[in-house]
């Protein structure tokens, strides 16, 4: 029989090499290669040809009599929204996040909410003792919830225990990196252990119909530690992030086989655990100083939910040879583009100015629709003209200076109207080609459609009180 060679596996990307190296050739990470025995992997013992294949039944793609997969809703609306309407029975979800962000807190709250609806819920901690978990639950006022607890790390023992008695509706494994399976020889936390443990739990979920949540640690650069392969194996990957200095927490679906991936859930960490933020727009705009120049409210979308956030800009003469450009919460390249378009097509001269742009509240905006709000904030700061405090902006700016229409125009306007805004500057054309026609709530807004960036600049400059600054050209009052 051929001699089994040990292989060397990168713990960061999972690449296999024949000898040990200081640096992984595949992903370039240093000191991540560890020796793993091929005879120890899952499936290693059933060499091909050792047994005859079993014939299994095939089913049809179109199966009319089968109901949609059952979903288990927790009643925590922000969590249910991100999962696409509740956990799907038999699915496996990976919840990633930095240490201390509140993963265990969120999950114990979800477990307690589910257990209260008379379902079997099991919470297995590989990091904390049962007493610690219990103490936390008591502090959160969830001490009475019939959640079953254990502090265990052996996958074989866990699967055997879970298979005993009533089928659990939800199983939480906190965290996957602390679990180990006897089928793999390497230490817990290594690629093959994490993969082996995840595989066993996925098999458990598929065969029993229980929803399983795996908690995954996140490395410094924001990746879920251990192999990326786990992300490919599970049905959904959800990340839990903290934003800014406040106690805001955002839940985001990165991958979801059973729902959308662009929804966010907003929570606030309080002394009584995580509380849902049902109206994030109000929260993001709460500490706004509307009268200050350089602030523009962006009517954005996060998934299917409209979200209003404030863009703040500071444009100040620079004392440096190369002016500074700093962005928080938005894309630096996008700012450079908007600045270039303002210079090329609206006659502004920004080359001698330091430019700072920040999205208030610590949210990260990725939409191109934010271009117009960013431009408005920049022009407002440059000219010293405050924008109307009851006005919102959205629209994508093309390199030609044209303002392009964006999706969900009507939803954005409706959210703005709901929060008491009266004016909107938008791209030209009906916001949503005839859809939502019967809707009256957004009609109370005065909508100014803007075809070209120069129109926006002229409009802001025109609203400048003339008595204060009589002699300068309208489009570039402070420029040189
Ligand atoms: P935890 O859920 O243990 O984080 P993770 O599992 O992601 O590592 O959360 C720990 C943090 O949350 C800790 O720094 C304290 C804070 N916290 C509160 O502010 N209020 C609370 O009610 C709880 C339980 C935790
Ligand atoms: Mg934890």
Class by SSE composition: alpha/beta
User: How much helicity do the residues have?
Assistant: 10-25%
- The strand line-up of the biggest sheet is 8-7-9-10-6-11-12-13-14
Assess the beta-strand content as a share of residues: 15-25%
Q: What is the approximate shape?
A: globular
Number of helical runs? 11
Architecture per CATH nomenclature, i.e. the level-2 architecture of the largest domain? 3-Layer(aba) Sandwich
Report the CATH superfamily of the largest domain: P-loop containing nucleotide triphosphate hydrolases
**How does the major sheet shape up?**
9 strands, mixed
Description:
With about 475 residues, the chain is an alpha/beta fold. Helix content is about 25%, strand content about 25%. A hairpin with a 2-residue loop joins strand 15 and strand 16 (about 305-315). Helix 8 packs across helix 9 (about 370-385). It is globular. Magnesium ion binds near residues 103, 127 and 174. The site of magnesium ion (MG) has 4 residues, from helix 2.
